[in-house]
Amino acid sequence: MKNTLVALACGALAGAASAQSSVTLFGTIDTGVSYQSATATDPTTGLTTRQSRTSLGNSGYGNSSLGLRGVEDLGGGLAASFWLEAPLSTDDGGGGLSFTRRSTVSLSGAFGELRLGRDRTASSLNDTIFDPFGGNGSGANLLGAVSLADTGLATNYLRASNMVSYFLPATLGGFYGNVQYAAHENVDSSTSLTGTSDAGRYTGGRFGYANGPLDIALASGQTVVTDNGSLTRTVRRSNLGASYDFGPVKLFGELSNVRDRSDTALASLGNNYNGYLIGVTVPVGPGLIRASYGQVRYDEGALAPLYGDAPQSRKLSLGYVHNLSKRTALYATVARISNRNDSAYTGSLSAAATTGYGAVGVGYSGLPKSSTGYDFGIRHNF
C-alpha cells in the first residue's frame, strides 16, 4: 500500500512539473533542384553573354532549420521561454550548428513580452509575411533583393544581434506591435579622432491589425553602417503590407521604401529604392497556387538626372505547392526578372537582383538584362 501511494505521489509531481515547463524540438528540411540563368550585356564591348547553373539547393519553400524552444509557467500569469534556431544546409550537410536564425530568452505576461537576443527585425517581417512565396526560393519578394544585394543595405535587414524587443499583449482586440533596439556594442574611446562609431545599431518597430481575413501592418527600421571604417551610412526602410483572405483566393500587397544616406566631409548623398508587390494564393484541392508581381525603382539621388530614366527591376513569379500531408509538401516555382534602363546604371543592386532573393546566385559579366529561375523540391516540417 505504501509503495502504491509513493508511486501515485511521484506521478502527480511529474505531472505538475510537465504542466509548468516544456521543451520542443522542431525544424524544417527543405531540399530541391534549382536552375538559374542570367543574361547580361558588357558595357564596353556591347557583347551579350548568358550564364546558367543547375544545383541542389535548400529552402526553396520553407527555411531549412533545426531548433529548440521551451516555456516555463512561473505562476501569476508570468511565463519564461527560450527559442534557439539554427539554419541547416540540407543539400550537402555542411555548416556548423549555430543559432543565427534566432537565439532569444523571453519573459511574458499580461503586460506583453520582453525578448532579449538575436531575432528577426520588425522592418523585415512585412517582406516575408505579405509575400505569397514567404521570402523563399526563386519566387521570393523582389523587395528583399534590394535589401540583400548591397552589403550596407543587408546589414541588420533580416535579423539583428544584441537586441531588446517589446511586444504588445495579444489581448488588444486584434491590434499587435513591437519595438526593438539593437546595441552597436562598439568601444567608446576618448582618444578616437572620429568619436565612437554607431555602426551596427538598429532601431525599429512594427504595428498592425489582424482580425478574421484581414491583416495589415506598418513597419520601419533604421540601421547605421560604416563602410571601410570611414564612410557612415544610415539605412532606413519602411513598408506597408496587407493581406485579405476571401476564401477561394487570398490577396497580398506591399509598398516599400529604402533610403540609403551617406555623410561625407563634402556633402550628404542619398539613394532611394521604391517598390511594390501584389500577389495571390488560390487553394486547389490539397494544393496551393501562388503568384506575385513586383517592381523596384532605383533613384540614385543627385546622380539620377545624369542617367535619364531611373533603373527598374521587375519580377513575375508563379508556383504550385502540393500538400501530401500537414507536414510534407512538394513544390515547383518559376520566376522571371527583367531590368530596364540599366545601360547607364552601374550599381550593384540591379545586378544582384537578377538572381532573386533567396535563389542560387549566377555569375555574370557586364550589366544584367534578365534572369530566370526554377525550383523543384520537397519540404518536411517536424
Task: Describe the structure in your own words.
The structure is a single chain. The chain has 382 residues and is mainly beta. It contains 6 helices and 17 strands. It has helices at residues 2-20, 122-129, 142-149, 151-154, 304-307, 348-353; strands at residues 21-41, 48-58, 65-75, 78-87, 102-109, 112-120, 159-167, 175-182, 202-211, 214-227, 231-245, 250-263, 268-284, 287-299, 312-323, 328-340, 367-381. It has a 16-stranded antiparallel β-barrel. The model is unreliable at 1-19, 302-307 and 343-365 (pLDDT under 50).
Nutshell version of this structure?
This protein has 382 residues and is mostly beta strands. The protein has helices at residues 2-20, 122-129, 142-149, 151-154, 304-307, 348-353, and strands spanning 21-41, 48-58, 65-75, 78-87, 102-109, 112-120, 159-167, 175-182, 202-211, 214-227, 231-245, 250-263, 268-284, 287-299, 312-323, 328-340, 367-381. 13% of the residues lie in helices and 55% in strands.
How many DSSP H or I helices? 6
SSE string, helix = H, strand = E? HEEEEEEHHHEEEEEEEEHEEHE
Structural class: mainly beta
Number of strands: 17
Span from first to last CA? Answer: 43 Å
Task: Describe how the helices and strands are arranged.
Blueprint: H1 2-20, E1 21-41, E2 48-58, E3 65-75, E4 78-87, E5 102-109, E6 112-120, H2 122-129, H3 142-149, H4 151-154, E7 159-167, E8 175-182, E9 202-211, E10 214-227, E11 231-245, E12 250-263, E13 268-284, E14 287-299, H5 304-307, E15 312-323, E16 328-340, H6 348-353, E17 367-381
Antiparallel strand pairs: 1-2, 1-3, 1-17, 3-4, 4-5, 5-6, 6-7, 7-8, 8-9, 9-10, 10-11, 11-12, 12-13, 13-14, 14-15, 15-16, 16-17
